[in-house]
Design brief:
Layout: H1 6-14, H2 20-33, H3 45-55, H4 59-65, H5 73-113, H6 121-132, H7 141-150, H8 157-163, H9 171-184, H10 186-214, H11 221-245, H12 253-260, H13 264-287
Helix pairs in contact: 1-2, 5-10, 7-13, 8-9, 9-12, 10-11, 12-13
């Protein structure tokens, strides 16, 4: 039995023998099963099926726009599909470039997310043991505790459990202090996190513009438009990075003093002496 053509379906619809819904369904079924009769018969089957599904909502508009003024309905629909296919390809290419850019940027972007180095137990024990002892030879764990609380963002619970015995505390006590400073700094940390997330998005946006620019023909309005957007996006990314780098992520000495229940001046003095002790240790290490 010979299959009906698109023109025959249209004639049935115009004569009232076929309802609009059935007419649209018949066109969709015809397009799905007769790729070789369309203007994009050279596309691979998977891409063609994606296009037909994307094109289906436009059928209603194409039917409403058709006027019987010389060209047949089949010819009109073929032209409409050809123009839509070009738009579909542009969107598919843009999405492909965006996806590729995101994946290709994932490796260098990992450096942004890279965490502080994890010290081994022996290394941490050696460093902390040396810093605890002041110049007079006495053991002063309060200085190290103040430093740990100040640098809470770099101290995981696992690391806290390993170093707690070195400063004469239980891991539960140290983690409790870290939780308190985190809660105190929550609003500030959330603000910094949102700023970093926006900078990551801007970074990916720059990568996408770069890739799209490569695939755009030079000396065209589209190429110039993308070039302008890329320049602006890079400028904005640089400003965002400078702003983030200027933000201090550690706790203030006043906050550390509040958590430990001591005077701010005591924290200032302890951290200053600890810094001096560290500089002396570093110089000795360089000489050795």
């Amino acid at each position: 039995m010979q299959k009906k053509s698109l023109n025959q379906f249209y004639n049935s619809y115009r004569s009232g023998d076929m309802e609009r819904e059935n007419f649209e369904g018949a066109i969709y079924t015809f397009l799905v099963n007769n790729q070789e009769k369309t203007c994009i018969s050279h596309w691979n089957n998977d891409l063609y099926e994606d296009f037909v599904s994307w094109f289906y909502p436009r059928l209603k508009k194409s039917i409403d726009n058709y006027q019987e003024m010389g060209a047949s309905f089949e010819a009109f629909l073929g032209k409409y599909m050809l123009l839509s296919a070009k738009e579909f390809q542009i969107r598919a290419t843009t999405n492909s470039i965006t996806e590729y850019s995101a994946w290709s940027a994932q490796i260098p972007e990992m450096y942004v997310y890279e965490e502080a180095p994890v010290y081994t137990h022996n290394n941490a024990q050696e460093i902390i043991s040396n810093l605890i002892i002041d110049r007079s030879g006495r053991k002063n764990t309060r200085r190290i505790l103040a430093l740990i609380i100040k640098c809470y963002c770099c101290v995981s619970d696992n690391f806290a459990e390993r170093i707690a015995p070195l400063i004469g505390m239980s891991s539960k006590e140290l983690i409790k202090l870290l939780d308190e400073i985190r809660e105190m700094r929550q609003e500030k940390d959330d603000r910094i996190f949102r700023m970093k997330e926006r900078s990551y998005c801007q970074y990916y946006r720059c990568i996408v513009y770069e890739k799209r620019l490569i695939h755009t023909r030079e000396n065209t309005s589209e190429h110039e438009r993308l070039k302008f957007r890329l320049e602006k996006a890079r400028e904005r990314l640089e400003k965002m990075r400078k702003r983030i780098s200027a933000i201090r992520t550690d706790a203030t000495n006043k906050q550390v003093a509040e958590i430990l229940g001591i005077a701010k001046g005591t924290v200032d003095a302890n951290l200053h002496r600890l810094k001096t002790r560290w500089e002396i240790m570093s110089k000795k290490a360089e000489l050795n």
